[in-house]
Description:
It is built from 16 helices and 14 strands. By secondary structure, the chain is α/β, with parallel strands linked by helices. Strands 9-10-8-7-13-14 form a six-stranded mixed beta sheet. Strands 1-4 form a two-stranded parallel sheet. Strand 2 (78-79) and strand 3 (84-85) form a beta hairpin. The longest helix is centred in the C-terminal third of the chain and has 25 residues, at 282-306.
Amino acid sequence: AAECEEITEKVGAKRLIEITANPALTGFTASKILWVRNHEPETYAKCAHILLPKDYVRYMLTGDFATEVSDASGMQLLDVPNRCWSKEVLEKLDIEESLLAKVYESPEVTGSITEEAAKLTGLKAGTPVVGGAGDNAAADIRGAAPTPPPAVGTGVVRDGKAFTTIGTSGVVFAHTDQISIDPKGRVHTFCCAVPGAWLVMGVTQGAGLSLKWFRDNFCAEEKRTAEGMGVDPYFLMDREAERSPIGCNKLLYLPYLMGERTPHLDPDCRGVFFGLSAIHTKYDMLRAVMEGVTYSQRDSVEILRGMGVELQEMLACGGGARSKVWLQIKADVWNREIIPVRTEETGALGSAILGFAAVTGEKDRLALARQFVQLGETVRPDPARVAIYRKKMAVYEKLRAFQLESLL
């Protein structure tokens, strides 16, 4: 956090957003680099290169120092509008550009498997290694009309298309052919895996993490039963959440177990169960977790709308897309249709498609991705539930605002 303050002071809050499309964040790489320099100067002095995890794997496979625009966008050192390292930010933070890898577009060949790596892995020497993408950017590619070029994994490939995912964190993600940056820095703008396109997304830190935390601390019985039945504990938890009414008998949950990222940048805010009384059951608390995460994500949905980012079609992927209860909650809270993606591991699929596009040299072949993705049945909002959730959301917003103001 101290390093984020340092970055903001040296670059300027407004200028930082103009260049990197985001405010200084503790989860981004720049603040971590400065932390190492401030707290472990002897380690920093030994640095020859700074690589993201997948790019270190790339280096071990190929011997090449390379990264690509989508993942590099989260380093807070990239000029996101121009898709290259920012000389201004690097100079102001006193970071040598030579420490950083060459930047490629996602569907570009960055090197090939070396003889040594081939012996260690069984891969064929000379196999091309492609730029790839960050997790959400890779999941973005599923295919559409060849112009504009499609993105990867789920089909959010042109303006109006978006997806939501619940893994450890929860993402609301929209594709845009024209760069769109929130001047207040409330949501992220990154380079997309599609050359010449960008993505805008909001991220709730403790989304699926909240449900996992609840499972691990309060659902030992469900875990034992699920093991005996040969099913996932979340399957049983889904059934239990259905036993609680909409609004969870006036129980609200704020999912800030890890602070918050967007749109309320505050590493110090904390989770809350509000309104607990003796009438509440574990089922109410379980459903409240699902509803609270969905309320939190709605904040990002509304900000994207306010930025003029169209959200005409909303797909859903990740572990949360397997929960019929959670999908219905999203449809009702957001008052929009949700289409689940049945294809598992859309990020891995998107990465494979990027590789295919790179080695064929035909970027428009990314459109073939749509052949590999299976969509489930559309989940539609229920007008009566929408009206109830609108009232619940108003209370949630007041509670969230009170908590953030109190902690500040």
